[in-house]
Design brief:
Chain A is α/β, with parallel strands linked by helices. Chain A has 2 domains: about 10-125 and about 150-260 and about 475-495, Aldehyde Dehydrogenase, Chain A, domain 1; about 260-455, Aldehyde Dehydrogenase, Chain A, domain 2 (3-Layer(aba) Sandwich), CATH 3.40.309.10. In chain A, strand 4 and strand 5 (about 40-45) form a beta hairpin. The longest helix of chain A is centred in the first third of the chain and has 20 residues, at about 50-70. The relative contact order of chain B is 0.16. Chain B is mainly α. A two-stranded antiparallel sheet of chain B has the order 1-2. Classes of the chains: A alpha/beta, B mainly alpha.
Chain lengths: ~500, ~150
Amino acid sequence: MTVLEEPIKEVLHLKNYIDGEWVESEGEIKDVVNPATGKTIAKVPISTEGEINEAVEAAKEAYPDWRRTPPLARARCLFRLKELLEENFEEVSRIQTVEHGKTIDESRGETRRGIEMVEVATGIPSLMMGYNLEDIASGMDEYLIRQPLGVFGIIGPFNFPFMVPLWFAPFAVATGNCIVLKPSSEDPISQVKIVELAEEAGIPPGVWSIVHGGRTVVSGMLDHPDIEGICFVGSTPVGRDVIYRRCGETGKRVIVMCGAKNFALVMPDADLDRTMAACMTSFYGNTGQRCLANANLVIVGEGLSEQEYDAFYKKVVDAFVAAASRIRMGYGLDDTIHMGPLRDARKKQTVLRYIEKGIEEGATLTLDGRQFELVGDLPDTCFVGPTVFEDVTLDMAIAREEIFGPVAGIMKASGLQEAIDMIHQIPFGNAASIFTGSGKWAREFQYSVECGNIGINTGIAAPMAFFPFSGMKDSFFGTLHGQGREAIRFFTESKVVIQRWF
Amino acid sequence: MESVSLTAAAIISFSEELEDKSSVFYDELADRWVENKEAFQTFSKEGGKNKTWVVRTYQETISDALEATFSFEGLNLEDYSVETTLAEDASYAEALEMAIALEEKVCEFYLEVAKRSESLLATIPGAFRRVAKRRNKRKLKLQSMLDKA
């Protein structure tokens, strides 16, 4: 067993980064607490309206020069940032573990995904190219140019504090825009580290700013006339009813990525060993705090007799519960740990309420996450163990609502179509997975299911940096998505030129 | 160490430890048997290369293949602990025999973790196998050195 060295030795006093300077905030100060140990690791300011305005003003001033910086020169800054992130791979990973609670494997995985965003954005000279056609009429040509828009606001979530803002930031900056980023005040440290490296990489003052805070900063972004668009990742009520609505009112571009309740279907021909390994990652990875986590496991009896189905159901449930029971919980810096704590005690209370609700609603609690063992001498304030409910039906809150914790609901379906119909009865449409050896079933699944990200024999359908991170129904609001070519389109305006020379 | 379902991070840490220990061991052999200094120094340097190869593969693949709770079930790392302390009065032949035993054990470890990581992207077991192959070649070379001793 190796317990890795903590990356933060003394309490950090975080500042805003505005116009290339680290500046103290006048706002109130909040503690950033390591959820595994309960220790305060940083103090983060809740910035004022004046401070967000100052950051937007600085970004607006920086924009004309940055826009005129050749794409290749902008790409070079991102190449340097990518190299610096690689050099600091381990440190930024350990920061995520102490600020969020996730295991070191999860943090390293998050770091890799984040770096890939920067890596893809370095291709901006090609990605940003327009297109043209000669002789649209005799002697006339037409071409399309992609131009940046100005200043964008990025609002990050707590569950992937390093990676998620990078779904947008490198693409925005690469296309010639400036950004003002508000990290989650629960775990803002890794974003501070990124900006330190961005500064070192030569990204000019005002291009990539950070303003810590809460609602005041978000409202300031939403209402600011000089912010062209907003990227938000968070809960559906806030995303839909606040961010999306306000951006509509103020005419801003918007990417709003929200909550989820994802299904995994296990077909009778699935490779059970590999399916269970994928399910553990999917249901319990990041302690269930991920919008691509599967939460409902549907055991499908397509083509089976009643007796065969009962045996199949038991086999899957036994394997799932056995695998979940082996999950070791503790401090994510201990490299033998499979699952860390939830981000904070309030989130634990929410998960516990859902467990109680599941019992009240009549589901069978097969594995009780309220009873657990921790590896190491740690406070149990934020920990909940892997939980499994059977006999879950779609009318239950635990089947329909996003719990954002390590709780799996097991359901039954007699056939594939019934299982797909179950998915469609849920308001969310972020992701869904099927485990099968049948191409026919897999195709039918991907063709019919109304979800933005489909996994076939994979539990986490996480699109790579060069594909959009999709989402449907109450999981996504907007038109274009983050990552890849869609992000390039989001952060640019298409200008068409028609020319004729006399 | 008890047999638990080990994380990828734990396996990588153990692999790094094995390579570091091996390098120190071969450095000592290079110091004590100067007539074969070059060969032993090469083995020592290879340890660094192996470590870089495995860690790089892990860090570059982890987002796809090794996320979260992937486990190397039932592996007992104590089975692969290696002896690298050379007795003061050890002869050249004894040192080579110890090196061969070390290579066998390390090779066994890499092949075992390659087998257990088959369900991940092919680059992961591929990296372990590549190091196992390199260590096996080293074992053959050591055997030939022992035969000539």
